[in-house]
Amino acid sequence: MNIVLITGGSRGIGASAALECARRSMGVILTYQRQAEQAAEVVRQIASAGGKAAALPLDVGDSASFAGFRGAVVRTLAEVWGATQLAGLVNNAGYGGYQPISEVSEAEFDGLMRVHLKGPFFLTQALLPLLRAGAGIVNLTSATTRVATAGVAPYAAFKGGLEVLTRYMAKEFGERGIRANAVSPGAIRTELGGGLSAEFETLLAGQTALGRVGEPEDVARVIAGLLGGDSGWINAQTIEVAGGYNI
Fold it and tell me: Is the model's pTM score more than 0.90?
């Protein structure tokens, strides 16, 4: 069985990606930081549909914990699937921050950097020995790297860095047949940053060619597709999943 690991899988895009991957007969290890019960519910939903999943705690902003986390992944692979390797890694965990550059503190800047750029870098490094030849990596970035939106400068800057890192992953891991791609969502109806107000959602929908904001499932299908065999020749790309936002 192909087993994938999805960070931030207790809700939003991560939870939808976990469910979609399971629907496509993948085993799923999902991580959570504080939402243990929500993560357990995702695991229950997958199990009730005949799939297999497990949830592990992880703070993506704490790179010192990654060696121990890798050990937990090794044990989970063996206990749940009798396996030793992962077929995919989805660096999805994150949070939003919304304020102008003039008001961003150094602590806020560093917190976003640790989760959105440093975390994916060193977590991928830690889990690389577990990724089998031909595995897929998907990094979640953001349409804010293309369309400047006042108030999200640090978040967008680190997501832009993650897009560059994605190409370097593809270059350096290619000798093992490991692909790396980025998925760049537009406005999605999730809890990130406190969610979208009705007024803001209407504004964003009006700026989108398809006339609505996205749902987590819209992004999840692309993530699962990139991890599947039909996308085996897609590599080092950033795919915007935004319904035609600000085109």
Answer: yes
* Confidence check: pLDDT of 133 > 60: yes
Q: Phi-psi region for residue 131, left (φ > 0), alpha (ψ -120 to 50) or beta?
A: beta
- What backbone torsions phi and psi does residue 4 show, to the nearest 5 degrees? -120, 150
What's the pLDDT tens digit per position in 15-71?
Answer: 999 999 999 999 999 999 999 999 999 999 999 999 999 999 999 999 999 999 999
The tokens for 71 are 């050990």
* Residue 155 is a catalytic residue: yes
The DSSP code sequence of 128-192 is: GGGEEEEEEEEEE--GGGTS--TT-HHHHHHHHHHHHHHHHHHHHHGGGT-EEEEEEE-SBSSSG
For residue 196, give Cα distances in angstroms to 14, 135, 202, 216: 18, 34, 9, 13
From the list 98, 93, 97, the residue with the least C-alpha distance to 115 is 93
Entry field: residues in the chain: 247
Which of 32, 95, 98, 155 is catalytic? The answer is 155
Q: Give dist(CA 17, CA 11) in Å, integer.
A: 10
SS3 59: coil
Cβ atoms within 10 A of the Cβ of 84, count?
A: 11
Q: Which CATH number fits domain 3-241: 3.10.20.30, 3.40.50.720, 3.30.559.30, 3.20.20.70?
A: 3.40.50.720
Query: Cα separation of 228 and 135, whole Å?
Result: 9
Phi, psi angle pair for 139, to nearest 5°: -105, 130
Integer Cα distance of 242 and 70 in angstroms: 33
